[in-house]
């Protein structure tokens, strides 16, 4: 006898005698709900814990504020028949749905209960999810899904597949309206994986969560490749290689605590601004460390994260996609208590160039910030786009255009800060004044140009260099001349392409004052059904 069959038998055996009055009815209700909350059996719970996983309700308790959860349809059961389903009708039908609070703000949640049908989705299961998604959209509050399911319930056939369609449709309708966060805490295979992909953020836990469209057995049968579940779709794979996961953690407790922190940085919906918090970090704090942190020599690398730490409140920020496309940093932080989204080149990785993955990562982050009224701060130190046959054949034009489109389409406050290099098309794409940045600042170490001085001199003065008695000496002289004429720190400022050249130590104060001024910015896009962004 399976655990589920055993549970069904237990439910029948333990059914109380029919009550004869209201008090009896209430006692019956309490007993029924207690059994629904406890799950199918102790054996099923022990099996879940043996895998290093929490139960659905234990996860909800970690996510939400204490005693804030209100459950929806806890007594729901499926109506399917055949294949033995009529004998197994556990309450909740394998998914716990409801709402509660995180830091006092309403959040909707649904959590697959792997102990019941392996968390597989059937008709009733899907309808519960549809209902809670509709409630979240109507209430204008974030939706968090705690995923731990075996996909569609095969015994229910096409009705299970239709249930996924309803989820995808609602994911799309909620996109850019309310924050949607998917937390992967177990397997997620086949079409089920597309729901997390449609949401704003994906969290994963190492060893226990996997996502893939076709599993290892199918891959082996079709291609002959042999690979484990984690090797195919584990947390590290999606955090470092595919970019599907935004965050990966070692355990569920840490993962859910970070989900709570992310929610504290996001608004309830697209009609609100993110919550502000008081800070003891002075607005006018000088950042003297920046004078030494960023080398004036454009060929020397440094860690852009340390620059961000100097600028934001208390040095705290939450990096998104930290381990994927590491040549660009995307992060959420606070400045003077107000949330800001940061996009920054990382000179420590590929010299901070833009490539296909960095463009995609940045574009999605810009769109998310714009959708949820989060101002954008772009920190530039970019030598250009990554050259190479693989990049060109992989569609760097198309992918780079995604970032350009995202910036041009964004209506939130936008500030550009140029630390050092800002060369060519990459300078334009990363929120230059010409594509709509509200303000552009530069440090006196900036180099804004079509390309580096040496490359430019080799093109412009190639005949003079070739004809010179000492070509190398002539080349050095021409490089120096090009720098003095077109690449001095004030060239762009003189032409109105940079609003001011500032002392790096005053950067925090300048940015906070500028963000405060832009807080009431209002911009409308042309009337249209929707744009047609590059894909």
How does this model look, in words?
GO terms for molecular function: propionyl-CoA carboxylase activity. This is Acyl-CoA carboxylase subunit beta. InterPro entries: AccD/PCCB, AcCoA_carboxyl_beta, ClpP/crotonase-like_dom_sf, COA_CT_C, COA_CT_N. This protein is α/β, with parallel strands linked by helices. It folds into two domains: 225 residues, 2-enoyl-CoA Hydratase, Chain A, domain 1 (Alpha-Beta Complex); 188 residues, 2-enoyl-CoA Hydratase, Chain A, domain 1, CATH 3.90.226.10. It contains 22 helices and 17 strands. Strands 10, 11, 12, 13, 14, 15, 16 and 17 form an eight-stranded mixed sheet that branches. Helix 5 runs parallel beside helix 6, helix 14 runs parallel beside helix 16 and helix 18 packs across helix 20. It is elongated and about 105 Å long.
Topology at a glance:
Elements: H1 3-14, H2 22-38, H3 42-50, H4 56-63, E1 70-72, E2 95-102, E3 105-112, H5 123-139, E4 143-147, H6 158-174, E5 180-184, E6 187-189, H7 194-198, E7 201-205, E8 210-212, H8 216-223, H9 229-233, H10 235-242, E9 247-249, H11 252-264, H12 290-293, H13 304-311, E10 317-320, E11 328-335, E12 338-345, H14 356-371, E13 376-382, H15 389-393, H16 396-409, E14 414-423, H17 424-429, E15 439-442, E16 447-449, H18 453-460, H19 462-467, H20 471-486, H21 491-494, E17 500-501, H22 507-518
Parallel strand pairs: 3-4, 4-5, 5-7, 6-8, 7-9, 12-13, 13-14, 14-15, 14-16, 15-17
Antiparallel strand pairs: 1-2, 2-3, 10-11, 11-12
């Amino acid at each position: 006898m399976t655990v589920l069959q055993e549970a069904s038998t237990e439910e029948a055996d333990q059914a109380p005698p029919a009550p004869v009055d209201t008090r009896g009815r209430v006692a019956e209700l309490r007993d029924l709900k207690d059994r629904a909350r406890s799950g199918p059996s102790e054996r099923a719970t022990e099996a879940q814990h043996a895998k290093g996983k929490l139960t659905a309700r234990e996860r909800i308790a970690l996510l939400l504020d204490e005693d804030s959860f209100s459950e929806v349809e806890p007594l729901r059961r499926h109506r399917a028949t055949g294949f033995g389903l009529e004998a197994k009708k556990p309450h909740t039908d394998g998914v716990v749905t409801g709402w509660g609070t995180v830091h006092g703000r309403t959040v909707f949640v649904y959590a697959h209960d792997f102990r019941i049908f392996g968390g597989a989705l059937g008709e009733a299961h899907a309808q519960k999810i549809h209902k809670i998604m509709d409630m979240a959209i109507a209430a204008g509050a974030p939706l968090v899904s705690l995923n731990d399911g075996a996909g569609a319930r095969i015994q229910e056939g096409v009705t299970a597949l239709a249930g996924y369609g309803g989820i995808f449709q609602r994911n799309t309708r909620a996109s850019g309206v309310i924050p949607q966060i998917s937390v992967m805490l177990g397997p997620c295979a086949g079409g089920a994986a597309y729901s997390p992909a449609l949401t704003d953020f994906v969290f994963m836990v190492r060893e226990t969560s996997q996502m893939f469209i076709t599993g290892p057995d199918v891959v082996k049968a079709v291609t002959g490749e042999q690979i484990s579940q984690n090797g195919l779709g584990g947390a590290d794979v999606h955090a470092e290689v595919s970019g599907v996961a935004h965050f990966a953690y070692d355990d569920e407790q840490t993962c859910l605590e970070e989900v709570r922190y992310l929610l504290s940085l996001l608004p309830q919906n697209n009609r609100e601004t993110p919550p502000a918090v008081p800070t003891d970090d002075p607005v006018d704090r000088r950042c003297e460390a920046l004078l030494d942190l960023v080398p004036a020599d454009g060929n020397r690398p440094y860690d852009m994260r340390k620059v961000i730490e100097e600028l934001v409140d208390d040095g705290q920020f939450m990096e998104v996609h930290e381990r994927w496309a590491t040549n660009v940093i995307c992060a959420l932080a606070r400045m003077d208590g107000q949330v800001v989204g940061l996009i920054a080149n990382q000179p420590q990785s590929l010299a901070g160039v833009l490539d296909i993955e960095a463009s995609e990562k940045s574009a999605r982050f810009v769109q998310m910030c714009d959708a949820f009224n989060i101002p954008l701060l772009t920190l530039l130190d970019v030598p250009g786009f990554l050259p190479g046959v693989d990049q060109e054949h992989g569609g760097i034009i198309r992918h780079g255009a995604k970032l350009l489109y995202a910036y041009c389409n964004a209506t939130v406050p936008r500030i550009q800060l140029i630390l050092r290099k800002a060369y060519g098309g990459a300078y334009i794409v990363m929120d230059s004044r010409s594509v709509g940045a509200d303000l552009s600042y530069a440090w006196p170490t900036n180099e804004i140009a079509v390309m580096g001085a040496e490359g430019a001199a080799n093109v412009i003065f190639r005949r003079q260099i070739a004809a010179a008695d000492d070509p190398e000496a002539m080349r050095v002289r021409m490089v120096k001349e090009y720098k003095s004429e077109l690449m001095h720190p004030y060239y762009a400022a003189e032409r109105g392409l940079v609003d001011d050249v500032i002392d790096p130590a005053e950067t925090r104060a300048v940015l906070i004052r500028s963000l405060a001024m832009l807080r009431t910015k209002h911009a409308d896009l042309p009337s249209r059904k929707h744009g047609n962004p590059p894909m």
